[in-house]
Design brief:
The complex is a heterodimer of chains A (about 325) and B (about 350). Chain A has helices spanning about 1-10, 20-30, 165-180, 200-210, 250-260, 280-285, 310-325; strands spanning about 35-40, 45-50, 55-65, 70-75, 80-85, 95-100, 105-110, 125-130, 145, 150-155, 155-160, 185-190, 210-220, 240-245, 245, 270, 290-295, 305-310. Chain A is of the alpha+beta class. Chain B has about 350 residues and is α+β, with helices and mostly antiparallel strands. In chain B, helix 1 runs antiparallel to helix 4. The chains are: A alpha+beta (about 325), B alpha+beta (about 350).
């Protein structure tokens, strides 16, 4: 489990530029799936099983992309200005390191400012890759970078960049490897461009036109940083009830909770005040798709050092495998 | 090289002038659409106006299994709508689209279908306090003044736009609504030059300035294999003093060629199409620049996530003073934009999409 998560988190894949992570995942899942294909938006779609009587066509989505930086200008003195792809938070930038898709590494810092208590906007930060002039600079406008931060094994918990959502990708890969008997046609989608607004999931959901959608993503937690929510690290996967863009279908929530109880999997209910997931895009696709989300609690989301609890991950795997292996009954409480 | 087929001379400039002077505020694009229909009719195999008002024109190809290539440019411009009739031919109004509200005082405008001339009236400078002068006058304190003689000739719901007339000065083009009539004129030229190798789908869209509303349904209808969006993007390249701080937020620059989009608030351009365009530009010696990644957006934002997804890229003619009464663009940038897109049209086939991304 840890090894897979470690491997996936370390591959750079900013929104819109997911080819390296996509190829890695494709190689890993190839032996376990009937076929894989890559669509117009770069989503990797893998089909497992076929629909038996009483079965459903289920879309399961985790996103491959991570937040990233894109070069907007090279200064005469060789400093690299950038814009963000996805929710890059300025407070996590200064002193950090980045790696470009071409392998170049650099450090981030910011323009001089007098009010140290204020956080500067992204336009006042730059990447210093050690160049002495514009001509000497090995990156150019449009080049992409991600945080450079190695995987840290802390025992029960692990920390890395891009756990959002490579731990969801790992969860989906391990589920693909485990689901042996299922009455369902399972369509696993490793999505692109979630961090800029679930754009990959939008077009994937349209194409697949499934009966049910499940997104696998991380959720922030309430046990630190004063976020007001009742999801804690280490207390089990979170079954989403609501976030800013999505009210999970109550029948889907009920099905997930019921199954978790039957399987004796610890779980939590998630009501989130910031952000959304690919489940939103699925729910409002075409004529509507019942959808829900299973979240892995995660501290420090969108920082270079996110953190998850491996027990939460293991429980999520048990729950998801269980959910997809049996007949699905969608009914409200 | 077929690039010499691409030229912009008197007829093209006449057409751009006509398009720039035409009134076509978002939701009321009819005047522009009529001009485009007249031009495009002899150049395409079929055209129609859809339910949103988009003008959709198709030029078929004889090539078997050819790519369906969409070109989109928006017909609408930012402007105003009258919301309340006051006395003496004065009207309260609201903005339609992201107008630059700093630029409104005392600007001449045209109101309604009959282009009634008026002016945006406000408090005279003599009577304002320094505090009032330091901030933007709210729209609520302005009126469109049509004169008492015109009272009753306009009504609530009428559209208005700036009365600016187009002119050219050497390589420079000045006019209102060049965002995006430059794109509209470019599409018309592409239809004229069409080499016939692809199934070409021209979308002259409506309501871009209100949130890409027309492009959404146009792309749904066309189901293209790929899309090129032609727009105008702001340039902030005035030669201001940079001795202290380098200008790192200019978006793009006049005279540096077509601005190819990498990423904006609505779209991450398809890397395969970026590469396709830059390779063409380099092979053909067409100057180009990358628009700085950041905010803003074009019709590509709606097009690329339509149905199962459409690989898309935007190319803009740079323009100073966007969303104000006047835009300053360069003829050479327009010509290079047209040259680049003509080459793209000639070379566009499905194999482009097999490239690495």
């Amino acid at each position: 489990m840890k090894e897979l998560i470690k491997q996936l988190t370390q591959i750079p894949g900013p929104s819109g530029y997911e080819s390296a992570i996509r190829e890695t995942i494709r190689e890993i899942i190839k032996p376990y799936v009937r076929e894989t294909r890559v669509d117009a938006m770069g989503n990797l779609i893998a089909q497992v099983g076929t629909k038996a009587p009483g079965g459903m066509r289920v879309m399961v989505a985790a996103h491959m992309d991570e937040i990233g930086l894109i070069v907007s200008h090279i200064e005469k003195k060789g400093l690299v200005r950038f814009s963000n792809l996805g929710g890059v938070l300025p407070r996590y930038l200064a002193g950090g390191r980045v790696v470009f898709l071409n392998g170049t590494r650099g450090v981030i810092n910011s323009d001089r400012h007098d009010e140290v208590s204020k956080i500067q906007p992204i336009s006042q930060f730059f990447i210093d890759i050690g160049a002495i002039s514009e001509k000497d600079c090995p990156v150019k406008i449009g080049d992409l970078a991600v945080f450079d931060r190695e995987f840290l094994d802390l025992g029960k918990r692990v920390s890395s960049k891009a756990l959002d959502d490579r731990c969801g990708c790992a969860l989906m890969i391990e589920t693909i490897q485990r689901v042996k008997q299922s009455p369902h046609e399972l369509l696993f989608v490793f999505c692109t461009q979630e961090e800029v607004g679930s754009r990959g999931a939008t077009t994937a959901a349209y194409q697949l036109d499934a009966d049910l959608g499940i997104a696998l993503d991380v959720t922030p937690v309430g046990d630190i940083l004063g976020v007001k929510m009742q999801v804690n690290l280490g207390e089990g996967p979170a079954i989403k009830v609501r976030d800013v863009g999505h009210i999970a279908d109550p029948a889907v929530v009920n099905w997930m909770v019921r199954t978790a109880r039957e399987l004796k999997v610890p779980h939590q209910l998630e009501v989130l005040d910031v952000g959304s997931t690919d489940a939103r895009a699925m729910q409002i696709s075409r004529g509507g798709m019942p959808s829900g989300a299973l979240s892995i609690p995660c501290r420090y989301v969108h920082s270079p050092s996110e953190m998850i609890d491996m027990d939460d991950y293991a429980h999520a795997l048990t729950l998801l495998t269980g959910l997809l292996s049996r007949e699905i009954k969608l009914e409200k409480k | 090289m077929n690039e010499n087929r691409v030229k912009i001379s008197r007829p093209q400039l006449k057409l751009l002038e006509k398009l720039s002077n035409a009134v076509g505020v978002s939701g009321n694009e009819d005047e522009v659409r009529q001009i485009v229909i007249e031009e495009i009719r002899p150049l395409v195999d079929e055209y129609r106006v859809d339910r949103m008002g988009n003008l959709l024109a198709i030029k078929h190809t004889k090539t078997a299994d050819a790519a369906r290539v969409m070109f989109a440019a928006h017909m609408d411009e930012v402007g105003f709508m009258l919301v309340q009739a006051d006395t003496e031919g004065c009207y309260a109004f609201e903005a339609v689209g992201g107008i630059d509200e700093r630029q409104l005082l005392a600007k001449p405008v045209l109101v309604g279908k009959d282009h009634l001339p008026g002016v945006i009236g406000s408090k005279p400078v003599h009577l304002t306090s320094p505090a009032e002068r330091a901030k933007v006058t709210p729209l609520g304190q302005l009126r469109i003044d049509l004169s008492p003689g015109c009272a009753g000739k306009a009504s609530v719901g009428d559209y208005a736009t700036f009365a600016t007339r187009f002119w050219r000065s050497g390589d420079s083009l000045f006019g209102k609504a060049l965002d995006d009539r430059l794109g509209v004129a470019t599409l018309i030229e592409l239809a004229r030059l069409n080499p016939g190798t692809a199934e070409v789908l021209f979308a002259f869209t409506v309501q871009e300035e209100l949130g890409l509303r027309g492009a959404r349904v146009a792309a749904y209808d066309f189901e293209p294999d790929m899309a090129f969006v032609v727009d105008s993007t702001p340039a902030f390249d005035l030669p201001l003093d940079e001795s202290e701080d380098e200008n790192v937020l200019y978006n793009c620059r006049l005279g540096a060629g077509p601005a190819i989009y990498l990423a904006d608030a609505g779209t991450i351009s398809d890397p395969r199409l970026i590469q396709f365009l830059t390779r063409i530009a380099e092979d053909c010696g067409i100057p180009y620049q990358f628009r700085q990644p950041g905010g803003g957006g074009t019709d590509a934002g709606a097009i690329h996530i339509t149905r199962g997804g459409v690989p898309s890229v935007s190319v803009s003619v740079p323009g100073r003073y966007a969303h104000s009464p006047i835009l300053h663009a360069r003829l050479s940038d327009w010509k290079n934009t047209l040259a680049l897109l003509y080459q793209a049209l000639e070379k566009a086939d499905r194999s482009i999409l097999n490239a690495d991304r």
